[in-house]
Structures
1.
Amino acid sequence: MASSFTRLISKRNTAVLLAGLGAGTAGFLLSENSSLAAEAKKKLYPPSSDYPDLRKHNNCMASALTPAIYAKLRDKVTPNNWTLDQCIQTGVDNPGHPFIKTVGCVAGDEESYEVFAELFDLIIKDRHNGYDPRVMKHPTDLDASKITHGMFDENYVLSSRVRTGRSIRGLSLPPACSRAERREVERVVVTALAGLKGDLAGHYYSLGDMTEKEQQQLIDDHFLFDKPVSPLLTCAFMARDWPDARGIWHNNDKTFLIWVNEEDHTRVISMEKGGNMKRVFERFCNGLKQVEHLIQERGWEFMWNERLGYVLTCPSNLGTGLRAGVHVRLPKLSKDPRFSKILDNLRLQKRGTGGVDTAATGDTFDISNLDRLGKSEVELVQLLVDGVNYLIECEKRLEKGQEIKIPSPIVQFRK
Amino acid sequence: MTKNCHNDYKMKFSRDDEYPDLTQHNNHMAKVLSKEIYDKLRSKSTPSGFTVDDVIQTGVDNPGHPFIMTVGCVAGDEESYEVFKDLLDPIISDRHGGYKPTDKHKTDLNFENLKGGDDLDPNYVLSSRVRTGRSIKGFTLPPHNSRGERRAIQNLSIEALASLEGEFKGKYYPLDGMTDAEQEQLIADHFLFDKPVSPLLTCAGMARDWPDARGIWHNDNKTFLVWVNEEDHLRVISMQKGGNMKEVFRRFCVGLQKIEEIFKKHNHGFMWNEHLGYILTCPSNLGTGLRGGVHVKLPKLSTHAKFEEILTRLRLQKRGTGGVDTASVGGVFDISNADRLGSSEVDQVQLVVDGVKLMVEMEKKLEKGESIDGMIPAQK
């Protein structure tokens, strides 16, 4: 299977390598091969005529995209012919919310982050606390044995979960991929997963082919993902050809789960009821390493580089792409006016138990790490572990009528 | 402009790997697009970069409904209908009653050729309306155009419409920039169009950059209305309360011709050819692009066993009063011509006028408890 693609990807890998070394970041200009019509059109429509109206917008793309940057990048294309307009379409179509700053921009392929670096680097800095991809390096560390105090008090923590994403190098990302590429992602991943054994052995359920019974079971297990309805995703072309080549794989124990071709090539999830975050993270790291090994055996690899860590569709998920979190009961602390500040300082985020953009039900919250890039997986999971332990400590103290303190803020690149 | 234009790269994958899964689908595109046709067309692209995958994306993403056959494809520019003939000609034939690639379409915007139409009973016919679309030569269509093109279309349209006088004197309201009061008024007048929510349109890329360069123009009398940059470059609507379809059609023809003259002077006439008539985004609107219709009270007739058959024979179509894909309210239906291509504007409006007149008479008969069996028309 890889042989029909190695010719393709070797050329692209070279481009990526060169770009990563700082060479050839000019990308590919719409070249001599362009039809006369395309050339004439460029003259008729200077970049200023195409510059989007972003006056009502509040997202990272709108903050960063000046007319000058747009003019410089508009006529560039990645080796796969992906353009700036395609990257920013979602941000143009979704002005955003005064309180929630979305990213407003996606990559169509690994090279997008190089060819359109002038825009993406600014967005990355904005979103990831000042991380500067031009000078900084992102650490990767998947050694779960380093985690300490990773067993939570189960009177408070109901479940523990770690997720990330992985992209297959040489194939375009969900906004840009053709049906053939998407099917190839599915083939590569499903073939690899079939090689997992022991507690990781499992089964793949294609979204288009699953039986009603299988579907119901996956819903009951809270594993099923559905066609995206959020315009943030649909305007980024990620729902095309649904449900072609989309599916869910999970191990027989239902503790390790992989989504194929949703918002990223793969989303990898390790989860369990209860508070054993250490074990969840161990399985996460172990599973990831095994999958990586299995795809490498067939000549494939994950998209990764030193500047950006793991490369994913949304710039917000660069680096580790890792969200480690718990469902935790905090009835007293959540009503304390200092709750938000405490979370802030611990670099934690709260969500409702339905995930992003949902409200909390009762006193149970989804608490997870805010950061993704600039710190390793181990660092982020440890931050989450220490943070949640702190929150539980606060809750216990409030139960006893004792005082609690706002912790000092954790060091960032900039404040 | 360059949407999904990585065709050369895609050509390295096999036809079978790229061919869409249409096994769950029921739309015109799915019926026609064999692997052979896909293979033939996948290497092509129009001068502006529109490819067969762009044409069919909406049909792939929207499998359709067992009862309602949607078209499932769009054009990105005038040349799409030529470059992708092998796909679009059979779809056009399927959708437009067997229209052949060699057929010629007749355009007739001479309102004087319409017989009658000024005497539909206003006790039954509540309002009359004729709409069509126009595409402006030299620009790509809504699924494909860039912001720069869309804005140029808007500017040209504003200039053209601003020069209209007399009964056509009016004002342009850009979607992004109207006041709350203006918006309220446009909603109350049933003029305002909103960002498309139908996935048939959004999957075809037509809602990109909303509401940039979209707007509504209408005359001071509120009887002539133009939508700019919605599903087509222009949608032109003539309407008024009551049953005087003749007057509605007169205003429609006169207004359209005035607008066309102005665009021609700017070297941007309307897209038209003698085979397909007026070129629009959706193949279903080729030819006249005309939907002439009325809101008419037919509580008894609409529940009659032969209602659907009567409509079919009269070459008419029913919709709810909210327009396409809505249900009727209180026995009031939107009745309009079913055809677009292969007959002229006059022909189509004549069918509406004659057909609605007959149906109102049937309604009256049914009110008196009499039978309408003797009135069932032959197939037109």
2.
Amino acid sequence: MDPECSQLLPALCAVLADPRQPMVDDTCLEKLLDWFKTITEAGSSLLLLQENPCLVELLCHVLKPQDLSSRVLSFSLRLTGVFAAQEDCFQYLQQGELLPRLFGEAGPLGGAAWTAPTVRSGWIQGLRSLAQHPSALHFLADCGAVDTIFSLQGDSSLFVASAAGQLLVHILSLSMRGPAEGPPSLQADDWPPCAQKIVGHIEESLRSTATPQITQALNVLTTTFSHCHDPWTQVLWVQLHPLVAALLQKDPVPAAHSLVDLLLSVARSPGLSSSSCGLWETLAQTLSHLSPTQAGLLALGILKLQDCPQALRAQAFAVLLQPLACVLQATAQGPGPSGLLDSTAADSVTADMLLPSKAACVGLLCQTLAHLELLLPLPQRPCPWPQAPLLGAAVTLLQLCRGSGSPASDAGRQLCALLLGCVRVQRAALDFLGTLSQETGPPELVTQVFAVLLEYLRSPDSSPTVLKKAFQATFRWLLSSPRTPGCSDLDSHTLLFLRELLPVLQKRLCSPCWEVRDSGLEFLTQMTRRWGGQAGFRHALLASEVPRLTEQLLRDPESYVRASAVTAMGQLSSQGLCVPPAGPEHPGSQQSLLGELLHILSTDSEGFPRRAVMQVFTQWLRDSHADVVGDTEQFVAGVLQVAGQDLDWEVRAQGLELALVFLEQMLGPPRSHCPYAVTPPVAAPAGPLTQALQSLCRVRLFEFAFRALFDCDRPVAQKSCDLLLLLRAKTASSSSLQEPRSSPDVASVEAALQRWRAGDQAQPLGDLEPEVVLAVLRSMDLEGLRGALAESSDHVEKSPQSLLQDMLATVGILGENEADCY
Amino acid sequence: MPEIRVTPLGAGQDVGRSCILVSIAGKNVMLDCGMHMGFSDDRRFPDFSYITRNGRLTDFLDCVIISHFHLDHCGALPYFSEMVGYDGPIYMTHPTQAICPILLEDYRKIAVDKKGEANFFTSQMIKDCMKKVVAVHLHQTVQVDDELEIKAYYAGHVLGAAMFQIKVGSESVVYTGDYNMTPDRHLGAAWIDKCRPNLLITESTYATTIRDSKRCRERDFLKKVHEAVERGGKVLIPVFALGRAQELCILLETFWERMNLKAPIYFSTGLTEKANHYYKLFITWTNQKIRKTFVQRNMFEFKHIKAFDRAFADNPGPMVVFATPGMLHAGQSLQIFRKWAGNEKNMVIMPGYCVQGTVGHKILSGQRKLEMEGRQVLEVKMQVEYMSFSAHADAKGIMQLVGQAEPESVLLVHGEAKKMEFLKQKIEQELRVSCYMPANGETVTLPTSPSIPVGVSLGLLKREMAQGLLPDAKKPRLLHGTLIMKDSALKELGLAEHQLRFTCRVHLHDPRKEQETALRVYSHLKSVLKDHCVQHLPDGSVTVESILIQAAAHSEDPGTKVLLVSWTYQDEELGSYLTSLLKKGLPQASS
């Protein structure tokens, strides 16, 4: 602890211990605790307490009967735990009987303060920190803490109850770590008393008829098997397995969700050999006992396991597929298997679950689709993967939601009535359909996929979120569509689809809903980026009104849409897909686009479109876009001038990005990604270097960068510093440009920069000569600046000293700065 | 019994990070998804792990409702939807949907600007999140699904702020968000109809305060600004992009006009245009006066307030500058503060709350020597003023709203525990309504008595009408009929299904003991009903599927036995067949 903090600490402890000084802002206490944790992690807690006796005084003081704030009491309990985590400090606090007085029956536990959840939470967290060594275990046993923790598992506060469960796991694990003499016995009967007590409690809870108790026990076990992988966990599982399995005999199975979590954590635990513990049998039983909704999560978990018996995997996959098999069966045009599961008869339980209630049906279908979506990209997904029937199921569901399917059976019609217009299922099915594009499918099904997607994109009933997902799924399917043999162009079917799609996109770009226009533009940008160079796509796009509409959206009232239109137009223009606007007032569309984008950059009131313009310009410069290469210097100078005046720091930062691209084009790319990497100096030829620097001076890149170096927004300053360091490294080896520092121009530039640094940036630098710039660069402590900029801009206000000062300063003036809203 | 459960993940006995989970008739709704600006790590967001445990978020939650655009109510939304993984519907009013991204973007920029802020959402995430929003109109009943509906009411406070009624069947909860019961310069007062919800969840920021007149605070503010400008000083007002900044602008604009003042007023970063745009767009959300005068002059088209340029800060002479951010923790407001702090003629007015760890907090706590980077010390000589213009209902206003809505119970959030305690007692004593104030993580469970709609046949209704009394909603009437309940109603009422059994007595001439008669019946049925499961139970009774047959002695005739036969209505066919079979008597051969 630094001396300044040490000096402030006694006064702060006195304030904390004074019940007349309520501490309104409890974030301060949290931050104070964070600071103590950092100190104790780095050094001796005992020394800290000895050097700062006010801390122990505070802990003693909170025990006195008084009307102390529950937050301060909670803080003190947690702080004590942090100190007592080190065994010598624990002994020190024990000598003063402080620990039993704080954590035992005589402490807050028995008092009125205990009614505050924050105190109970502090008590648990204090013990959690403290329980790090064998002495702590004895202490816990002596003060009867474990029984209190048992009862806190059922606390009215979620936070307290959850923390109590986790503390039990921690204590169990600590006690099983055992004394230093050797590892604990693998016989449960020989386990330490504390461990036996906890296991006994878990057993009792598992036998209970009350679901909350069973849930608590299952959660404790789940955490245990997830975090502890020592051999004793296997003994624990063998002992408790029958009790867990017995839960399956109850109808309905209690705490099903927690049970699934436990079984999966056991199955994942590397400490357990699953085959010897009857785990696979239990998993199989559980799959068949749980309701389809509950079993879905377990099935997914099983299928994610790395090694597990094939039969169990097949059973799990069947559970996962069952709801979709039911859908396929209900909507099948004729008799026969749906193709998704071998058994033709759909599981009656699942069918029962699907049909009678809309909520249950929608819930189960959405869950199934999400699970399958997660499973598909995994390497351990079932093989063979039933791609075709799954595609069929997704398409069918989407059709049912639109009411466009015409199921023949009663069940099918019932399903159709339930799903008609259901946005939740539409969203889930479109996401799933998009994911299915990773695999191919039979051509007739792919045709159906495109048809249903088009149907959704066309439908006036599709909500904006559904449309967005439909666009995303369409793009993914287009990506996976077959190419014409021998070239990368889209095949004829896809092109045909594209011709149907573009009028739909056109319509969507005119939607009254900004979300839809924006999704349409994002889709267009993606497509152009991918296929902008391909003849078929170009032809179809140019034959449509899409480019012209996109250009109009540059003036959209919604800034998000303007930004997306800027990006889309930038992309279209890069690919030469901008249509010349009709009328004599537009002599050339490309030129007018550049002008229009510059206009947006200098006048748009929102940051998003201006930032989008900067991104487009940077990309154009990088790609040597036709309009840029015409007069690159004029382009760069114009953009930097506008960007430099922008009030949005992200626009200024992107200005630096553009400056960097220009600089690299002039001087060559940086030699190493790491600016500190040792690279042999390669002498740059003086002639081209001089010309390049002159070019940088002409576009006023240096003035822009120097201004940015003293920007009030830190990322801008940091980026500028990096740029100038790169420039200095590039020019370091050029001897022909070495100039004495004492030139009068250099002095005046340095003086101007000093004023800029002080915040007065009114005076411009004027025309600069390369030699002057280099001399100024060499004289600047850019490395030092870079180091300073690497810290957060509020690191001083966030420092511990500042925290202590703030806490002390607020004493007595409460009400002046009261928490209300922001 | 059906119940309503409420668990605050944030705003339970504190302010900041508002996030309240409500479970009503099996539907789960999240009310607000705010952030706490006092933290710069994950603690700034509510701890969502408590809901992710319940499986997929999108499956668990039916919807998220955002009351207004303040960050302590919506700041965690992009994190929740784009990083934690919620993909379901989000509801808010149209103005909130329009303004929310500006505030979120503003905050994101500050967070990134400061650096060192990890795990934060991006600009694209804010946009993607806002695209999931379903915007609602005031008093429009929105059907989230077949059962869940929501309705927004005007809340005052800030542009677009709304209170929401959440209703499933006959059960309902009203959540106020932040609200104001007195109109201010540009907004009206909160209003709700007598909707009699089961529960009213109300904010309680000023639970113990009877606030002084806002006029006084405004007068004080204008006087201070005027004095500073008159003595040639510069006035800095750090604000967040939208909200009370606009109210202060109207105030200054009117005052400047009236007093014919010449000192320039500046507002940073095109915010005046934005404010102008949104207030024009949502003029119906402002108060009557603004709406009325709008035809002649738009109050938000300011004559005296100009856009700020960074270079203006160094101009000589007096000026007033509104600059972001509001807590002096980064960017432009902090830069201007540093420039102007050393001059005692200047003034900074903090119009809102500042969290610890900001320069705003420091100067409000009276610190005048601030350590800056590189161990430099900034001496604050400028005048520092704090004037809260936040528009919350005070104790009187909260009581007024409770009186308006007439809830069965009240639950307090968004306030300090001690203040809540005071208000809780007041509500319970004066309004005789039970009141709760759970801490974060604590669940309040309220049993409800649902009213379930019942279908009545036309015939029955006509019969009742024939008695001459016209139906009156306020006077309950007794109807006689048979009530048939389906599964869902039983579940909702927490009742078990009533088992209906038919019974019949069959007299048999048989002088033997009852047990022997029963055995004869068993043997007879066993031989006749080969496809059915016929059992002779240890207590002597005989069962065939659900049909139960017991033999008893006749009270008057010892030579006769009575067979008591009962069956469920599902087995009615078999039951009738059996009785007719038994009525024919038992075969003699078996005797």
3.
Amino acid sequence: MENSNSYSPYSSSSVDSTKPSPSESSVNLSLSLTFPSTSSQRETSQDWPPIKPRLRDTLKSLRLRLRQRGYNTALFVKVYMEGVPIGRKLDLSTFSGYKSLLENLSHMFDTSVICGTRDRKHHVLTYQDKDGDWMMVGDIPWDMFLETVRRLKITRPERC
Amino acid sequence: MNYFPDEVIEHVFDFVTSHKDRNSISLVCKSWFKIERYSRQNVFIGNCYSISPERLLRRFPCFKSLTLKGKPHFADFNLVPHGWGGFVQPWIEALARSRVGLEELRLKRMVVTDEGLELLSRSFVNFKSLVLVSCEGFSTDGLASIASNCRHLRDLDLQENEIDDHRGQWLSCFPETYTSLVTLNFACLEGETNLVALERLVARSPNLRSLKLNRAVPLDALARLMACAPQIVDLGVGSYEDEQDSESCLKLQAAIRKCTSLRSLSGFLEAAPHCLSAFHPVCHNLTSLNLSYAAEIHGSHLIKLIEHCKKLQRLWILDSIGDKGLEVVASTCKELQELRVFPTDLHGGGNTAVTEDGLVAISAGCPKLHSILYFCQQMTNAALITVARNCPNFIRFRLCILEPHKPDHVTSQPLDEGFGAIVQACKNLKRLSVSGLLTDQVFLYIGMFATQLEMLSIAFAGDTDKGMLYVLNGCKKMRKLEIRDSPFGDAALLADVNKYETMRSLWMSSCEVTLGGCKRLARKAPWLNVEIINENDNNRMEENGYEGRQKVDNKLYLYRTVVGTRVDAPPFVWIL
């Protein structure tokens, strides 16, 4: 339990019950006022925010329909560079595919970001899907990726 | 009163309808207890596991209406695994065996089966009213039994249920001679609807007041239905495709104009952006408007509609209406009593549709507001303090800030002071949901000021056991406490075991309570059912002799009961 006198910037409540994200918790704790791993669990989970299943389904199918019709539904996700506590936010709906995403990220973080298998030299892009699992970017079709991606993380070269 | 014959006393009791009052009456003396027992018409059971049908029938042999609730509230948000319980079958069987003249059955969050519905339809000659809310386990075959066999049915009201739609002909199962329908709500059915059968049913139901259609009922069918039933008071529109041919639209507009009794509008499940204008002629009479599923309608169209609704008392809407839209509501709907604003963006996309400004505007403009449910991305203490000052009459105040632990976005402080102001000003507050960054301090305020509070929902809040203790010690009228993802543990849970006798139930998930603590509680309070729910476990916890210090993984649900451990619990529920 954290300090009991003044409020703690981060409630320790859910630490044990969420899937620990190894680099996240150590990197982002210091400055972030939310618990990244907790809030991302909530973002991906089916039990938060507290709305009924019918509304949840309605909103999901709405987003799908709008996107099918070519409407620009914003899809902001958080992007963290491993080792950097402060992340960025990126609207994925503005990219046409993985190539433009990588180009943009490389530019944003001033380094070379790639998809695919580990490479000693380059930063590899990973994402957290709606089940909460961390995956390599690039394996699935772009449209499917948009449906399932919840946040992005650019890993250090050796880690993957 | 002892000098009056029983019939006179009974007649007086007939005027007392609230459950609480009747419960109080029955405690006055033995004679009153007996008279009240035999004359109670409506029985309300808030937790189906708190009592058995046999004991119910022993106490109240003559009731006509039964309301039963099953799963705890958080089941609405997928927190209770499938198969947990809440089966209505034993109740229907027991009632069918007895000679009770059941006329009305209202179920919430229960598991209903087709066999149960069939038994229900055959067992009670005078059965009039079936209301199912958030139930599951049955199909349209069960509805067919009800339609076929309940000669005097008045109400068939299906709200937000999970119904297996066999696309059968349940609507045509209502006999041709059947004309007593008053309420028909099948909005939650996903499949095709027999439009011909529906139109014929509506045409021969002169008493029909409430009709809520599902998404399979298109625009032209709607026009015909409304033309058949101009006396309609409560309408749920089904599907509303993009610009139909102008003839359909004209027919619809003509039909709508004739519905001068229309007071309540809902649905628009698949609604095209421009469709609302057809309803403008009836808006000035509307008292209730539910557009919470009309996700495709742009804020500007919502606003144009609401500008006509001066008599609105209840409004359920999506946050796409925006702060500007809420300002229009505030200046137009002076009779507003209940407002619910639901989120459209679940992932914190960054577009702040409604903010604290919208909430403040509503509180300033709507003097009769007493119930609110508000989803938003951000809030401030200053706004909440202003809201509390503007609206000291809240009975229900539920605020859900979408991002857990989010502080006041201007000062970065916790929202303790804001919620504190709410509970201090609103002396009649019965229901409260808190969110955002909150410390133990907010619970100190709640325990101190929320004297009438009956239901409290806590998520991602508090620092220590003290928070929960403030609430348990202070809120004397607490009935339902539900907590998730908050650092409350055994010390709070075990401090006052007798408190739980005054409450219906306590829910704690992803908190700090341990197995050992729960076991100790179960030992101290044998009149409680203490359930540990873990859908990934199937009782391995029990077999492996889990250490007492192990944190409960991950849900604790406890409730008072007079009938002991329930026998229908699935393997993943461990009752201590």
